[in-house]
Amino acid sequence: MSPTPRPARPVRHPLLRGLQCLRCDALYPLALAHEGCPACRAQGVHVSLRASYRTAAETAGAPVPLLPYSEGFTLGEGRTPLRPMPGLAQRLGIARLAIKDESRNPTGSHKDRMSAMGVAQALDFGAHTLLLASSGNAALSAAHYAQMAGLACEVATYDDMPAAYVRALDAAGARRFSFADNAGRWGFVRERAREPGFFALTNHSLPALGSAPLAIEGYKPIALECLEQGGLPDHVIVPTARGDLAWGVYAGFRELLAAGHITRLPRLWAIEPFGRLARVLEGGALHADYPGLTDQFSTAGATVTFLQWQAVTASGGGAVVVSDDEARAARRLLAQSDVSAELCAAAGLAALRQLRERGAVAPESHTVLMLTADASRDPSWPDPV
Asked: Domain residues for 159?
């Protein structure tokens, strides 16, 4: 079998000028390496960077949201359906509820949006290998996108990676390296990324920063899609580990607001299986570890990032803790409406119930739940009877 032909080099957006700190706005040049903001790190705060574009006057009339590559790499990700759920809305006592079904992306999860942008950056900078630490959807997505782009892919994963993901990674030609914990996985990616031609797609820092800044930009179109498909929501509920998706959705809406396409930001709610961001919002240290046990495989982990903190605080949202039992009950309820959801995505419905009970979501509200992936590869599926 002949090798996959290498795609043409992506075209950077002409308005892209560099990377900018989320906290202090310091500007840095574009690079493959992602170590966060040195100025903030010197102050003891570990903060990620974002893509920075020209000033508002220079971007006037440009499509929104802006993306780093005007011509990138795609396998058809995005434009996923927004599915109205009137029965569930009535049951929860709200005017409108819709599910943004990211399971309809090429490899079955929202991660494809990030992988496409990450592959574009790898090709742009002449990298030959994608690196990531993941035991689930991100690993499978990156491996598939890398294979189709003619890139190698190395995945640092846990020793007990679910068999379904092992088979899928092997089929995509990815190399797997197993470790007992996050420190081992992130350490491997961090050291490997220092070698020429290797590009770290996901977080490899401790304290955590989040994934590669240009790659996270791939989530911003979700905001525009929600607006076009169903109008401006009042609330967006997002399953969250380190906040890449939540921040990307927030950034997309922020650009729509700056361009005058909307008059307010939706409130973003980060859903987590045990208290991490919730504890930070109550006064806990941003860079502390908040360990816990969960079957919500895709949102496990003990770390919090400035990314997710910014997304919820700037939008007026917050964090909601949903137990595994609550998530399973919500998944059964979704199944009655013919919706298949990985456990952490089903937790969004349980979070909405909590938000309704405490009055944070009003009866007249329009809410969107992010369905990050279906249940087909979830190691917790099927639920115990």
From this structure: 1-385
Read off the pLDDT of residues 160-198 as tens digits, 9 standing for 90 and up.
888 888 888 999 999 999 998 888 899 999 999 999 999
Ramachandran angles phi, psi of 67, nearest 5°: -125, 150
Amino acid at 29: P
pLDDT digits (tens, 9 = 90+) for 19-69: 999 999 999 999 999 999 999 999 999 999 999 998 766 766 777 899 999
The total of other beta-carbon atoms located within 10 Å of residue 86's CB is 12
Burial 222-231 (b: 16+ CB within 10 A, else e): bbbbbbebbe
Tell me the whole-structure pTM to 2 decimals: 0.96
- Write the CATH number for 164: 3.40.50.1100
| CB environment 275-294: b (16+ within 10 A), e (fewer) | ebbbbbbeeeebbeebeeeb
How far is it, in rounded angstroms, from Cα 275 to Cα 243?
14
- Nearest residue to 140 (alpha-carbon basis) of 184, 104, 110: 110
- Are 316 and 360 in contact by the 8 Å Cβ rule? The answer is no
In Å, how far are 32, 85, 123, 262 from 116, measured between CA atoms?
A: 15, 29, 11, 27
CB 101 within 8 A of CB 371: yes
Question: Where does the chain show beta strands of DSSP type E?
Answer: 11-12, 16-21, 27-28, 49-53, 69-71, 82-84, 96-101, 129-133, 152-158, 175-179, 198-200, 235-239, 267-272, 318-321, 366-371
Whether 143 and 155 have beta carbons less than 8 Å apart is answered as: yes
Neighbour-count burial of 162, counting CB atoms closer than 10 A to its CB (0-12 exposed, 13-18 middle, 19+ buried): middle
Integer Cα distance of 367 and 317 in angstroms = 12
The tally of domains found in the chain comes to: 1
- Which of 263, 276, 384 lies closest to 321 in space, CA to CA? 276
Which pair of structure tokens corresponds to residue 113? 């949006």
Please give the full DSSP string across 187-203, using - where no structure is assigned: HHHHHHTTSTTEEE-S-
Banded pLDDT at 2 (limits 50, 70, 90):
very low
Nearest to 212 by CA among 224, 199, 197: 199
